[in-house]
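Progress report, Aim 2. The chain analyzed during this reporting quarter is listed below.
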Amino acid sequence: MAAHLYALGAIALWATVASLGVLLKHIPPFLLTGVALLMGSLLALPFVLKDKRLWKIPATTLALGIYGLFGFHFLLFLALRHAPPVEANLVNYLWPLFMVVLAPLFLAGVQLRGVHVAAALLGFAGAAIAILGAHSGGDGGATGEGGWAWGYIPALGSAFIWASYSLLTQRVKAFPTAAIGLFGMVSGVLSLLCHWALEPPMALSARDWLLLAVMGLGPLGGAFFLWDKALKLGDARQIGILSYLTPLGSTALLMGLSGRSLTWSIGLAAVMIIGAAVLGTRAK
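Predicted structure tokens for the chain:
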């Protein structure tokens, strides 16, 4: 039960990313991510200052953390640049499904049952309805550009990276959750290097810094710590299915803040995703 609560905490924070992203859409994505990740890493400092051994982890574990936090964001931003964003975001949300179906390959003693696959597919269908329905105004006419774009490949890659990172954290030698701060710090520096190399320079306002702090301490900081605790304590298959609440919450929050009324598609998606979560979390 504790694992589910930690996962739901991370999911609730991740649901705010889209709304914060709208408020910060004028900031280049690598600059936004770099600053937010560095701010999020500060959450670990009070613990590290008390015990510096918390950041003394094997190089392979640090590499895994960079692979997860930096690799995921790098490929996602690449996808959003080269594919219709709505569809690219949907492809990226294959990661909970990947978590479920790949769990037996990455984790010893974990078996995949039909109920897990059914719940994961039901959750993905609900996420598709939430994302596509919201961007069509709920009337069935999606606003995405459609068609093939090579950007779908990095979107698929970002989904695989986050799913495999989440599973592999349980394969490596146990590390303290405070080490997530080190992952975020190094990944933040790499993101700022990408900003320097790929994006135009930009001066940030006081409001920008405030919103970046909210994003850094929340969805690009605190959420990663909660997610790590959830994975350490719980069943990766169940947590993966629960994760479909993220696009549902994100879409609903974004529509609420923009003054749009919730549509039938959000209601149907909610029923499907919550049904998938109940089905998946009860399965052993």
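Residues 2-282 form one domain. The chain has one domain: 2-282. These observations will guide the mutagenesis work planned for the next reporting period.
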